[in-house]
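Cross-posting from the chemistry board since nobody answered there.

I work mostly on the small-molecule side, so proteins are not my area. We synthesized zinc ion and want a rough idea of how it might sit in this target. Sequence and SMILES are below. Is it possible to get a predicted 3D structure of the two together?
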Amino acid sequence: MPLLARMLPAPLTMQVRRGAVVELGALLADSRVATSGRVAVAVGPGQGDHIESLIAPQLDEAEVFRVADGSVDAAVTLGADLRKGAYEVVVGVGGGKTIDATKYAASLAGIPMVAVATNLSHDGICSPTASLVHEGGKGTFGVPMPLAILVDLDFVHNAPKQLIRAGVGDVVSNLSAIDDWQLGNTERGEPIDGLACSMARTAAEALIGRTDSIESDAFLTVLAESLILSGMSMVVAGSSRPASGGDHEIMHAVDQLFPGTSNHGELAGIGAAFCFFLREDKARVTQVVDCLRQHELPVVPADIGLSDEQFAEAVALAPATRPGRYTILEHLRMQDNEIRDRVGDYVRAFGR
Ligand SMILES: [Zn+2]
């Protein structure tokens, strides 16, 4: 018999709601997640005490570990603790750094991981990658996707607003990444995965036209779903292609040249707007810029404290940050003076 369908890996459960941390015990009682009750919980340094006090009454058997930071060292230390304790599952509760370190630790220990996100700053909460800091800078490591994903809106409401808004930039950048993938397909014959594109695009389209913002539970729910769907599109694609194009190359270049300038999602958002400007896609660039403004996200270099010249330097370096990935930047192969002119035109068109 021919193949009837392709099987897709997906989390066992996905919940976006208030009170997810308080009711974590119910999920861990699910025998598909843990049978013997040997559960480890990993929390970050910031909110660790608070989270531990919330989960202690429901998980008296669980051992709680502190993850120092989002470094490879912290993840390796946790991985060794998990192996020693012969745990069945580890629950990572926190923001991106804690979740990424826990994902990597779980893969080292060979056990599944449950992600409980308290923040919505980027699409790593359910992706098959962990972004961790090491001696040489920042690296991306392939890991299994979480077995279950929970987003606690109570925590999200209390997280720094700037970080929640950043998630919007990361999701919207999918639209630019998909155009880049399409370009790679047309120009270079690179295989493209229609299902991965549809998931990544749907995630962005669900968000971009909304008139509410991060104060509303309804908006945060869609933002969380979009970030999770983006992560799953990368699982389907087997790479970050549907959610990372020239937009993310510019982000990586800014990170390398001017570390600490801004966060992942904010830079991805600016990168996406600038890439649509380069494509001369007037409708999309206007739509993306309007969306960034609506959520108080940066649009032009000055909004993140960079001069036009510095941003142009980052655009010039961008293709080298991701060798082999064909995007609008590799396609146009602009010289430095041309890049400076285009950045100038962009700022004149969209600066305030
Ligand atoms: Zn991203």
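Reply from a structural biologist on the board:
Welcome over. Reading the output above for you: The chain is about 50% helix and 10% strand. The mean pLDDT is 94. Happy to explain the token format if needed.
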